[in-house]
Amino acid sequence: MEMAKTAGPQERTRACVARMRVVFGFIPLPVISWLVPLLALCCCGAGQQRSAPMRPARAPLFVAPPMTPTVMLGIDVLESEGFAPLRGKRLGLLTHPAGVNRHGVSTVEVLRRTRGLKLTCLFAPEHGIYGNEAASANVEDTVDARTGLPVYSLHGKNRKPTRAQLKTIDALVIDLQDIGVRSYTYAVAMRYAMDACFLNGVEVIVLDRPNPLGGLKVDGPLLDRELRSGVGAFPVPYVHGLTIGELARFAASKPGVMDVPENIRARGRLTIVPMRGWRREMTWPDTGLKFIATSPSICDFGAVVGYAMIGLGCEETGFNHSVGPPFSFQVISFSGKSSEQLERDLNALRLSGLRIQKTTTIDGSGRQAAGVLVTVADWNTWRPTEISFEMMRLACRYRTPNPFLNLSNTDISKFNKHVGSAAWWNALRRDGARVDVEGFLRDWRVQALSYREQTRPYWLYR
């Protein structure tokens, strides 16, 4: 006669759960699942040999759902208040893939699916409405395949909404995720759109979002007025410390920021829907929000930090930061120089708050690439743009004659529009490797402190 098989641990556990469901039918299944390890110990341990060790569970059987972020974005606050500022108006929406609520739902879908709202068209910044267009590429007008709405490009033949486009709406809603750096073009797209709306009597409604670098870090040269362009439309330092809603408030309130007559600016209608729960000391990881790629190369918070550091230092210098993910704007190299020499020369500068170490990674073409990884070791002492200007001086040491003497007029214009300081450009061309970086950095820090006090009236958060 065949002996009955002894029940294994899994079978005994399932039997325990089944008995519990019979006896305590009111207990929800997720709770019982959470108790399974205890049930296994109580119900199954008796059937094992005493010498057999108890096996630890391979993975928890009950996983708590992710917590809702404590920071409510402008779109979340708008929804919580019943979309009151939008009711009864024909709406346009300037946004991109990072324009989502705190649950990751696109603002396009939130507005389109809300009864009583009239979303009539979309406007797209650089990289397009889907975020898949290359940097600097002109984007054509199109029709959104998801919604059937017309999409008007603000990074193509037009950089501002046209009068004809604005005639179809009463208010333009703006939901763009900026990264806190002056040369990033989304704040420019917002400012240009504000100009056009104010001139044409269209209300602007800005849904605010966090500055990923926080509201206390301010660094780099203020933008010279004559260098305002599509990569700099505000008279602010390179790392400006404002949210996109605060930038809008600054533009609408301070004379001379917008390109409209003063009487038009004074009559312009701007509504800002602020966040709840955001404070100035909060960087992106403090918000609990998932980071959505803001552009093809800014896929995570590390790339945001890297862009603030070396986005400038690789403009026409011979340095390269294009190694691709997962280290966008974080690994640099210089043609003809080893990573060992680059690591040694940069560390000799004793740059505040930085860790610099050689590394090997895979570039965008799938090939192995060597360089140095630049990361922040001490956030409090870190001065974001310091390394950019040291890289420019170092380029003059690495290449002779001075590489900035032979740039084309187009390259000179591009360089200056990104950096924002004609005084720096003149000194760099004149002095090369002897340029007084430390003196410029000291002056810019003094200007940054003054700027922060001058812009404090436009803060929405403390």
Outline the secondary-structure elements.
Layout: H1 9-23, H2 29-44, H3 74-80, E1 90-95, H4 107-112, E2 118-124, E3 142-143, E4 150-153, H5 163-166, E5 171-175, H6 186-199, E6 203-207, E7 219-222, E8 237-239, H7 244-253, H8 262-267, E9 270-273, H9 284-287, H10 301-310, E10 319-320, E11 331-334, H11 339-347, E12 354-362, E13 368-376, H12 386-398, H13 409-419, H14 422-431, H15 437-455
Parallel strand pairs: 1-2, 1-5, 2-4, 5-6, 6-9
Antiparallel strand pairs: 3-4, 7-8, 10-11, 11-13, 12-13
Task: Summarize the structure in words.
Mean pLDDT is 88; it is low at 1-65. This protein has two domains: 74-286, Uncharacterised protein PF07075, DUF1343 (Rossmann fold, 3-Layer(aba) Sandwich), CATH 3.40.50.12170; 294-458, Aspartate Aminotransferase, domain 1 (Alpha-Beta Complex). Helix 1 crosses helix 2 (29-44) and helix 6 packs parallel to helix 7 (244-253). The chain has 462 residues and is α/β, with parallel strands linked by helices. It has helices at 9-23, 29-44, 74-80, 107-112, 163-166, 186-199, 244-253, 262-267, 284-287, 301-310, 339-347, 386-398, 409-419, 422-431, 437-455; strands spanning 90-95, 118-124, 142-143, 150-153, 171-175, 203-207, 219-222, 237-239, 270-273, 319-320, 331-334, 354-362, 368-376. The strands form three sheets. It has a seven-stranded mixed beta sheet. The chain has 15 helices and 13 strands.
